[in-house]
Amino acid sequence: MIGDLVVYPVSSELAYVVERDCRIELTTTPNSCTCCTFRFNSRHQPGFRCRHIEAVRRVLGLS
Question: pTM of the prediction?
């Protein structure tokens, strides 16, 4: 668990991220996420990382 996020690694390049209250399950990689925050901000800020990407990167030892 990273903060209020639960990270379920599937492989070295994919994880499912769920908020603690189980509202939404997101498909997340070290560089992309299905959340609205990432989809909106990544268009305007190349290299943007949402909190879900940061959590996956921590679990996978990439940050």
Answer: 0.90
